[in-house]
Amino acid sequence: MKANIAVLPGDGIGPEVTQAAVDVLKAVAQKDGGYHFAFAEHAIGGAAIDAYGDPLPPQTLAACKSADAVLLGAVGGPKWSDPNAKVRPEQGLLGLRAALGVYANLRPVRVHPSLMALSPLKNEKLHNVDMLFVRELTGGAYFGAKTRTDVAATDECRYTVAEIERATRRAFNFARLRRKHVTHVDKANVLETSRLWRSTVARIAHEFPDVTLEHQLVDSMAMLLLTRPSAYDVIVTENLFGDILTDEAAALAGSLGVLPSASLGDGKAGLYEPIHGSAPDIAGKGLANPLGAILSAALLLRHSLDLEHAAQDIESAVDAVIERGVLTRDLGGSASTAHVTAAVIDMLGTGHCRVAA
Q1: Disulfide engineering: 297 pairs with which of 21, 63, 136, 318, CB 3.0-4.6 Å?
Q2: What is the pLDDT of residues 298-311, one digit of tens each?
């Protein structure tokens, strides 16, 4: 197995966590002997603005389009935070998603027993929480036409049936591999786009008679995620709602730092990144939690390279490291980014964690 992986470190803690993920992928290749991963770094976000005046330089985009997969850190920071700036780091990420055609954003949320105490919820609500968000990623208000005057502004939220269908079918196919339950989240009592979503999702559900479908309004779903999170399996929703709900769901897991994501299109190539931001306040201090990026690398192996066993090896190693208490500050520990990464690599190689926190 040979694969070319484009690495986009980005801003803030992005370079630290992507390096951790790359180190783990190298360890996987070394352990197996039959995997050969080639890594090439490219600029995106604020770092690309500083270097090239463009948050997504043409050479970065070209490299990503030709790669077997893309591993990304994070973009943004105070240096580029002026909301009136014509060029912003986030434009690079949105542009990359659109250019790669990665319309389905997968965000798995699973609560590790050792981290339950870090959640603001009572522990009894966190047992058996294991859900997968499928967030439509290239439509809606984030990509709609925008206007701005001195007295008003608009953001068009537009969806086509085809956009909804492809994200919905992804969700139902994943549900078939899990607990066969899909929850669709919308605001159909108010929004016309949500009414289109609801009717389209209901129609697609007939193609999957073995999967149960329920609809929830986004405001009630925001409450239900916290009051009965174990009731949910696969959750499919539009771009804006998905962005908000997945960050809320991160509270269940105890920290944004442990959650990965995969953005997929019709082909095998995908974009993989932790869901956390650039955290510029801790950048360069060795405090960043690398587990979200490392678990994103596991998703890369699973979805882009069809290396399921290798993906499971990483996930098992991460579980073991958490169980043994090798944790960064956000999880109540004192281990550095390097210590946690080394512990995961050690578990991959030996099955025993020898690295002290």
Answers
A1: 21
A2: 999 999 999 999 99
